[in-house]
Amino acid sequence: MLDAGPPHAATVVARVQESPTIFTLQLRFDDAAAQAAYRFAPGQFNMLYLYGAGEVPVSIMSDPEERDVIGHAIRAQGRVTQGLARLRPGDKVGVRGPFGRGWPLQEMSGCDVVLVTGGLGCAPVVSVIHYVLRRRERFGKLVIVQGVKHAEDLIWHEQYARWAALPDTQVLVAASEGGPLWPWHVGRVTDLFALASFDPACAVAMMCGPEGMMRSAADNLLARGLPRTRLYLSMERNMQCAVGRCGHCQFGGAFVCRDGPVFQWGEVETLLAHKGF
Amino acid sequence: MFSHPDRAAFLPLAKLPSLVAELMARGYRCLGPAKENGAIVMRELESPEGLQRGLQAEQAPGRYRLTSDPHDRYFAWANGPQAIKPQTFAPQESLWRAERDEAGGLRFVPELPAVVKRAVIGVRACDLAALAVQDAHFLRTGRRDAQYAQRREALFLVAVQCAEPAATCFCASTGDGPTPAFGYDLSLAELKDGFVVVSGSDEGQAVAAALDLPAASAQQIEAAQRQGEAAAAAQTRSLPGRKLRDVLMSRLEHPRWDAVAARCLACGNCTAVCPTCFCHAEADVPALDGRTSDHLRTWDSCFGEAHGHLHGFNVRPDIRTRYRQWLTHKLATWHDQFGRSGCVGCGRCIAWCPVGIDLTEEVAALVEVGPP
Ligand SMILES: Cc1cc2nc3c(=O)[nH]c(=O)nc-3n(C[C@H](O)[C@H](O)[C@H](O)COP(=O)(O)OP(=O)(O)OC[C@H]3O[C@@H](n4cnc5c(N)ncnc54)[C@H](O)[C@@H]3O)c2cc1C
Ligand code: SF4
Ligand code: SF4
Ligand code: FES
Asked: Can you give the pLDDT at residue A187?
């Protein structure tokens, strides 16, 4: 059990700077048996500990069948994540996890997959994109809808272009403010839903990003005929314990760390309509 | 308490020290009421005779004043600022520490409190109800909190029936008092000349047996029962129901939240004194030698700035949303989590609020007027 008690020591085996603020870390538990026993589902997260600074929740980006390392994409923001950004291969961190409930991968099988992300592109959704692309035959169409504020906010430009070129894959990106050479839509991300091509009778949609964006994305998707029970989102709240104890991540009666971070839309839509929970 | 009157015993007033002595002989450090900083708090007794008599306190919204009981009873006070919560859920403690060696390698070491057997004398029915809720939270199957469990298992609880509720008490309305119904090792009801004693655990039974007490008479049992009924009847505050979940969740945009936010200081006193609040912060404190860092857990409050902090965004940026979070968690969504409300009617948050906000008044206003 790597999700109970103190963290377990792990080593940074690789680090890539993806954008000025985003970097990926590949981690491996120092205890080989722990590494071999570690299993997770896309959408789950780990608590990453930086010596003396603290722990932060970070989604697991790597493929669940990858057993050798555990991948995380992290944006350097505050105290802990800026410290994590300074780590180099060979450096040590603490890891506990995996925590929470991941994406409904069973339900996706055989159906179209619609992925909606906002802001700076969300790790939980990117992990599903990779998951689907590696098992392409199991799923129908893949629709990726991504909204950003400024054109420069879109990281992994080439990835989006590459995904857009794949068969049965639709990439819809919008920036509220475009820029020179911006190949995608300029305007609101919600403008894009009319263009999304999927079969509402057999589709699963997953969202992650700012809550206002997810609310309007949900309205659009439900209006397109997607059943409520096939709409999911990943939520973010302050997290300090990850085991349903410290109380910070509560959303109504739910502990996001334990009952989420992935929820079915119907479980949270009522409370999401009110700011402050 | 009186579900098994046949098992009730009688402890004459003069023999109360022998109960403390018996607990001490069994290795318990005994805690009893004491005056400190103008309030009644639980402190360790130095000797079996150390229990104080005549303590009392007057409570009202934003007010707590020590007084003394004209009848010089042992337990004629209602409650102090803290229930038994600090005995199980420590205000601050280290959960584990990280050790770093010269090569930068990390090792994680769990930290556990020393096992100290503690007996608390003077626990109230509301305190026991709150402890049951804390147990459900910290000892949840599959996720037992090791530190909490260690302290909890070493606890012996001597409950007392409340004869003189404070003006802020409303446990009768929440169904949690004033007579202890469960969760105690021993429960006492104080009469003029002694205590009706009931045991609620094997250990409690053994302690009572060692005191070699006579059975309580039918009159004594009846007097205790009547005393409990009178204490319930004396309470003036109440909540308008035991399950307010749906009605409160239908009042989330009610103007009353703005009105209470204009008074509330977001000081968090209410959460610090509440016996059911479980929120805590976790933070790392590295030692100056650069080799070890403690992972500390400290009581936290949903009224604080940091509680809803996400980088670049606060989920609850204002007092309105924080007070609403507190009240709706306590009285509404707590039902989803624990199958009951998070309020046991102790009234502490009323007395210790510096501006005297009274949750029963807020709830009445929220529930009374129709939606929004
Ligand atoms: C389930 C989940 C998955 C996440 N996955 C990723 C990911 O894959 N990549 C990534 O870059 N970020 C992710 N985040 C956000 C990441 O946890 C925060 O960016 C990080 O906690 C900020 O910490 P800090 O010390 O650098 O910032 P500060 O602003 O200094 O924060 C101080 C403390 O507040 C808490 N905190 C601050 N922001 C957040 C936040 N957004 N969510 C939760 N707690 C917060 C943390 O305890 C943090 O240590 C995720 C958050 C959650 C809840
Ligand atoms: S909410 Fe107030 S009255 Fe209710 S248990 Fe907590 S402190 Fe006591
Ligand atoms: S209700 Fe009273 S005690 Fe609670 S935070 Fe507001 S001012 Fe402080
Ligand atoms: S992160 Fe502590 S309760 Fe969810």
From this structure: 78
Q: Looking at the partner chain, which of B108, B321, B335 has a beta carbon nearest the beta carbon of A276?
A: B321
Provide the pLDDT for residue A231. Answer: 97
Please list every residue in chain A whose beta carbon sits closer than 8 Å to the beta carbon of residue B107: 9
Decide if A277 touches B, using CB distance below 8 A. yes
- A155: closest CA among A119, A179, A190, A187? A119
Which residues in A91-113 are b (16+ Cβ under 10 Å) and which e? bbbbbbbbbbbbbbbeebeebbb
Model pLDDT, residue B372: 47
Same domain? B218 vs B314: no
Whole-number pLDDT of residue A153 = 66
Ligand nearest to the CA of A58: 1
More confident residue, A148 or B290: B290
User: Which chain A residues are Cβ-neighbours of B336 within 8 angstroms?
Assistant: 252-254
Predicted local confidence at residue A126, as pLDDT: 83
- Separation of CA B337 and ligand 2 centre (Å): 17
Domain-located, residue B228: yes
Domains and CATH numbers, chain A: 8-99 (2.40.30.10), 105-272 (3.40.50.80)
Together in a domain, B333 and B197: no
Query: Of B178, B200, B234, which one is at a domain's C-terminal end?
Result: B234
In a domain, B321, yes or no: yes
Residue B250 burial (C-beta neighbours within 10 Å; 0-12, 13-18, 19+):
middle
In a domain, B239, yes or no: no
Interface of B with A in 71-100 (CB under 8 A): 95-96, 98, 100
Instruction: Based on the fold, state whether residues B228 and B284 are members of the same structural domain.
Output: no
* DSSP code for A153: G
Residues near B126 by beta carbon (within 8 Å), at least 6 away in sequence: B79, B83, B169, B171, B174, B176, B177, B275, B344, B345, B346
Whose C-alpha lies nearest to ligand 3, atom 4? B270
Q: Decide: B325 and B264 in contact? Cβ < 8 Å.
A: no
What would the pLDDT profile of A104-141 be if each residue is shown by its tens digit? 988 888 999 999 988 666 788 888 988 999 999 999 99
State the complex-level ipTM: 0.94
Of the residues B214, B234, B254, which one is the last residue of a structural domain?
B234
Q: Which of A11, A30, A153, A248 to mutate to test the interface with B (most CBs of B within 10 A)?
A: A248
Count structural domains, chain B.
2
Q: Are residues B219 and B304 in the same domain?
A: no
Note whether B205 and B286 are same-domain residues: no
Predicted pLDDT at A1:
67
Domain membership of residue B240 (yes or no) is no
Chain A contact present for B281, CB below 8 A: yes
Q: B281 and B210 in one domain?
A: no
The string of pLDDT tens digits covering residues A192-245 is 888 899 999 999 999 998 898 899 899 999 999 999 999 999 999 999 999 999
Cβ–Cβ gap B310/A237 under 8 Å: yes
**Chain A hits for B108, Cβ within 8 Å:** 6-9, 94
Please give the Cα distance from B179 to B156 (Å, whole number): 18
- Name the residue with the closest Cα to ligand 2, atom 4: B343
Q: Which of A233, A234, A202, A218 is nearest to A109 (CA)?
A: A202
In this structure, which ligand is nearest to the CA of B356? 3
Q: Which residue range is the domain that position B105 belongs to?
A: 5-234
CB pairs under 8 A between A and B: 115
Tell me which of A96-110, A255-269, B334-348 is least confident. Answer: A96-110
